[in-house]
Amino acid sequence: MTAAQWIEVDGEVLAAIKEAAEPFVDNPNRVLRRLFGLPAIEQDSTAPMPAKIARAPRSSLLPMHEFELAILRAVSKAGGEASRSKLMEVLGQTLEDRLTDLDREPLISGALRWQSRVDQARNRLAKAGFLRSPYRGVWKLTSAGAEDLDRREAEAAERGGQQ
Fold first, then answer.
1. Interhelix angle for 84-95 vs 64-77, to 10°?
2. Number of C-alpha atoms within 13 angstroms, CB side, residue 40?
3. What is the pTM (predicted TM-score) of this model?
4. Which residues pair with 140 in a beta bridge?
5. pLDDT tens, N- to C-terminus, the chain (163 residues)
6. How far apart, in whole angstroms, are the C-alpha atoms of residue 1 and residue 162?
């Protein structure tokens, strides 16, 4: 057997390897050996399947409340309803100057961290009753969401900042 070598793959390739993996058994090397028709090896000491990228310290990321406010504003400006893809485009432009280097990092899934945090913020807003999805991939502002946006805007104005 030859010495282990390191390769780098993107998130999409890693996701495909995970899809082909047998849970609790495989690591990427075992999956690739099987897919390429190579014989299994007894003592496979290669790295285990990565579970996730290490968490970033909270203070090193754009705060979640800023994502929430940006989402509420973007949906409101879009007439109260818009597709996720259109909102991601708008939010990318809106938040561009406030995103940290860690916010811009890719996750193991291939998505950028800030995009994942937008989805997390959207889920929090939906759970609170401020957004809903009348159709898959469409975000709609509820009346409670419009009221919450007004409240957040008033608080931001009182602090003298635009957030």
1. 120
2. 7
3. 0.65
4. 81, 132
5. 566 677 777 777 777 777 777 776 677 778 888 888 888 877 776 655 555 555 677 688 999 999 999 999 999 999 999 999 999 999 999 999 999 999 998 887 778 899 999 999 999 999 999 999 999 999 999 999 999 999 999 998 888 755 5
6. 61
Q: What local confidence, expressed as pLDDT, does residue 152 receive? A: 94
| Residues 37 and 67 both lie in one domain | no
Q: Do 27 and 80 fall into the same domain?
A: no
Q: How far apart are CA 163 and CA 154, in angstroms?
A: 12
CA angle 9/14/20 to nearest 5° reads: 135
Strands of 138-141's sheet in order across: 81-83, 138-141, 131-132
Note down the domain range covering 136: 58-159
Q: Phi and psi at residue 141, in whole multiples of 5°? A: -75, 130
User: Largest Cα–Cα distance of the chain, in whole Å?
Assistant: 68
CB atoms within 10 A of CB 32: 16
- Cα–chain center distance at 64: 12
Same-domain check for residues 109 and 129? yes
| Calpha distance 119→47 (Å, rounded) | 30
Domain count across the chain: 2
